[in-house]
Amino acid sequence: MGLLALLVAVIIINLSSSALGDDAANGGASFVFGDSLVDAGNNNFFSTLSKANIRPNGIDFTASGGSPTGRYTNGKTISDIVGEELGQLNYALPFLSPNTTGKALLSGVNYASGGGGIMNATGRIFVNRLGMDVQIDYFNITRKQLDQLLGPSRAREFLTKSSIFSITVGANDFLNNYLLPVLSVGARVSQSPDAFIDDMISHLRAQLTVKDRFASEELVNYKMVPLVFWI
């Protein structure tokens, strides 16, 4: 057997050295993309086999009084913790929540979805999930809402100077796609693990560099966390 290390997560943070504006009096905004590691409850709002709104999830989450929120954890997600450490007073709400509208957008929005991945086929075993393509399309909707709320110029300044963007994705592309028994046999025959990783990176790069779909143009810090297991 050998040790195989794979790309699991990419955390991308966009920060400006400029002072936060009036719209970021709450410490700024977080815009969160990814999978179950950072899902704040989007999967609560559609039919899927990947659900986390049941106990013991949430039992240590003070903000909900110990009730499950759709986070796949007993407490906070890593994006919740990062936001707190950066001085944000409110957690980013799930995009699909009916409460994610108006001034609530100024705390940021969470687009992450349990079962989601970079590749569109990832997570199909759960029937429904939000992949990266869908999440970025949802962010484009948020951009238009912010334009209406703040005006285009002020909204752009808010996104580039008062916001952070984080992406935590990649594990499901292997665990619930490439390595999935039966359903992935064809992919494994046609692609080596290294070739699949290259395909993932190519897809993620394309998803993040279509300027009309993604506002941030100063992604300055990349952190890659390996998934390590024996084969």
From TrEMBL:
Residues 1-21 form the signal peptide. Its main location: secreted. Gene3D superfamilies: SGNH hydrolase. The keyword Phosphoprotein does not apply. This is GDSL esterase/lipase. One of its GO terms (cellular component) is extracellular region. InterPro entries: GDSL (IPR001087), GDSL_esterase/lipase (IPR051238), SGNH_hydro_sf (IPR036514). GO terms for molecular function: hydrolase activity, acting on ester bonds. Pfam families: Lipase_GDSL. Belongs to the 'GDSL' lipolytic enzyme family. Keywords: Hydrolase, Lipid degradation, Lipid metabolism, Secreted, Signal. GO terms for biological process: lipid catabolic process. The keyword Nucleus does not apply. It is found in: Secreted. It comes from Linum tenue.
